[in-house]
Design a protein that fits this description.
Elements: H1 6-36, H2 43-59, E1 67-69, H3 74-84, H4 87-106, H5 118-140, H6 161-170, H7 174-190, H8 193-196, H9 199-203, H10 206-224, H11 244-248, H12 262-289, H13 298-315, E2 320-322, H14 324-332, H15 339-354, H16 356-359, H17 364-378, H18 381-389, H19 392-407, H20 410-431, E3 434-441, E4 444-451, E5 454-455, H21 460-468, E6 475-479, E7 485-486, H22 488-504, E8 508-512
Parallel strand pairs: 4-6, 5-7, 6-8
Antiparallel strand pairs: 1-2, 3-4
Membrane topology: Multi-pass membrane protein
Subcellular location: Membrane
Domain SLC26A/SulP transporter: 11-401
Length: 523
């Protein structure tokens, strides 16, 4: 692949950008409705999607990551609006959060992204896949009380993942089920190898056929089965302006007089931290899914996201982060470069300006089918088999992360997964801090401890326990000649043992490559 020639890859990037647009449109509106609770602010989600696609896409070093409004920020935005009292004051906080992200990027804070264990990232991807399936089933059944569902298990409307599944069956719509079933059939058909050989279907994505088919089916229902017809909450609901002045009225500007409010800065710091963490997690996950295995420069990504939030806040948009669902859809649809992200943002802008009425014919059931397939591909059974084969040190944090995310939310689940992964890292470090050799010589038993390359304070426990359990009258050789680094904590234990404990037990200690240190507080 020619990585730097966007013209040579546009045949892949344009169809992929179109698919991402179809996925992003209802999510942008859903996040806006969930975040603000106000129908008059739905366009703030579209603004964030456009900025995430065009501004962040142009500045980012990520080839396949897609930025936009994120469900993970919904609760923060809701609380911030209540605290600050106005949407315009909140926009100022978004701008300030963006400035903080830009500063963090220049200070190289993006390195944090490299410290998430692979097992946790893969668990996050699998959990998001399952979450997508569970949250989109209600829309596939035609139960659309909650526009897009929430990533968290417990939702702000008092429902949770399982009660929503129950409601989806109880209040199902036959028309939505028919459209979902047909849509899934089309997507499965498009995934078959023989379809890739047909020139037309290489360029036109299956998701476009799904949307067109869904619209045509719903328009045909009144003629032969009126009860199946979908309307209102079952369809995309993009704000429609009656004239140019009303359209520009959708855009808002920050209330700069709110600079004096301490609460604005508190919200800005919170947004900057959470949005940056979600972005870095998504970057790590997207890079793992990238078929070309490219690495995203994380500091540049923070800077790009920062400028995106500055732009979004200045014109009335919600805060943006890189988001794994849209990024996964991009990868799954064959995107090659960041041009697919820019294409999605451009189409989102043009459609909001020129064809909002036509977009409002799209059934949510069609879009639910697209997301169900994305969810399945993120959480395939082969992923679980592969992680199981790697052993429990990888499998346990992987499974715990999935369960924690499904039962709480993304950030809490990641935190739980990190704790478990770190436990296994510490446990392994404890066990493998040295190599133990016992030999019988003419003069008696000689025990050799060959220290590993890196010996840190984490190894204090195992080394101290080994020294305490050495048999009386033995000879021990502690060999640190192959170690690149031995922490003072460990050197202190060795010196204390050599000078005080060993003579009392008639143990002869010989050291190699180990620096003598002063034992602070020793006796």
């Amino acid at each position: 692949m020619k990585k730097n020639n966007w013209l040579s890859n546009i045949k892949y990037d344009f169809p992929s950008g179109l698919v991402v647009y179809l996925v992003a449109l209802p999510l942008c509106l859903g996040v806006a409705l969930a975040s603000t609770g106000r129908s008059d602010l739905l366009f703030s989600g579209i603004i964030a999607g456009v900025v995430g696609g065009i501004v962040v896409g142009a500045l980012s070093g990520s080839s396949l990551g897609v930025a936009g409004p994120a469900a993970g920020l919904v609760v923060i935005v809701l609380n911030a609006l209540e605290t600050l009292g106005s949407f315009e004051a909140f926009l100022l906080a978004v701008v300030l959060a963006g400035i903080l992200q830009v500063i963090a990027g220049f200070l190289k804070a993006g390195i944090v992204g490299y410290y998430f264990p692979s097992s946790v990232i893969k668990g996050m991807l699998a959990a998001i896949g399952i979450t997508l399936i569970l949250k989109e089933i209600p829309h596939a059944f035609g139960y659309d009380a909650d526009f897009m569902g929430d990533e968290a298990f417990d939702q702000k409307d008092g429902q949770n993942t399982f009660t929503e599944l129950y409601n989806s069956v109880k209040y199902s719509s036959t028309g939505a089920i028919v459209i979902s079933a047909v849509s899934l059939g089309i997507l499965i058909l498009f995934d078959r190898p023989f379809m890739k050989k047909i020139q037309l279907f290489r360029f036109v994505p299956g998701a476009l056929f799904v949307v067109v088919t869904g619209v045509l089916l719903n328009l045909s229902f009144p003629g032969f089965m009126p009860a199946w017809t979908l309307s209102g909450d079952h369809l995309v609901q993009l704000p429609v302006a009656s004239d140019v002045s009303e359209f520009f009225g959708f855009f808002k500007t920050p209330d700069f007089s709110a600079f004096t409010k301490v609460e604005v800065y508190t919200v800005a710091v919170t947004l900057a931290i959470v949005a940056s963490l979600e972005t870095l997690l998504s970057v790590e996950a997207t890079d793992k899914l990238d078929p070309f295995k490219r690495d995203t420069p994380t500091n540049r990504e923070l800077i790009a996201q920062g400028f995106g939030n500055i732009a979004s806040g200045l014109i009335g948009g919600l805060p943006v982060t890189q988001v794994i669902v849209r990024s996964s859809a991009n990868i799954d649809s064959g995107g090659r470069t960041k041009m697919s992200t820019i294409v999605h943002g451009t189409i989102l802008l043009l459609s909001a300006v020129f064809i909002p009425r036509f977009l409002n014919f799209i059934p949510l059931a069609s879009l639910a089918a697209i997301l169900l397939v994305v969810g399945y591909k993120l959480s395939k059974f082969s992923l679980y088999k592969g992680m199981y084969r790697l052993g429990r040190e990888q499998f346990v944090p992987f499974i715990v992360t999935i369960i924690a995310i499904l039962s709480t939310d993304l950030l809490k689940g990641i935190a739980v997964g990190m704790v478990v992964a770190i436990y296994f890292i510490l446990r392994k470090n404890y066990k493998h801090s040295y190599h133990y050799i016992k030999e019988q010589h003419r003069d008696g038993e000689i025990i050799t401890l060959i220290l590993s390359e890196e010996v840190t304070f984490l190894n204090k426990g195992s080394i101290s326990a080994t020294l305490e359990n050495l048999p009386e009258g033995s000879t021990v050789v502690i060999d640190g000649s192959k170690s690149l680094n031995i922490d003072y904590d460990v050197l202190e234990i060795i010196q204390d043992f050599k000078r005080h404990s060993a003579p009392l037990r008639n143990i002869i200690v010989e050291t190699k490559g180990i620096t003598d240190v002063e034992v602070i507080g020793g006796h």
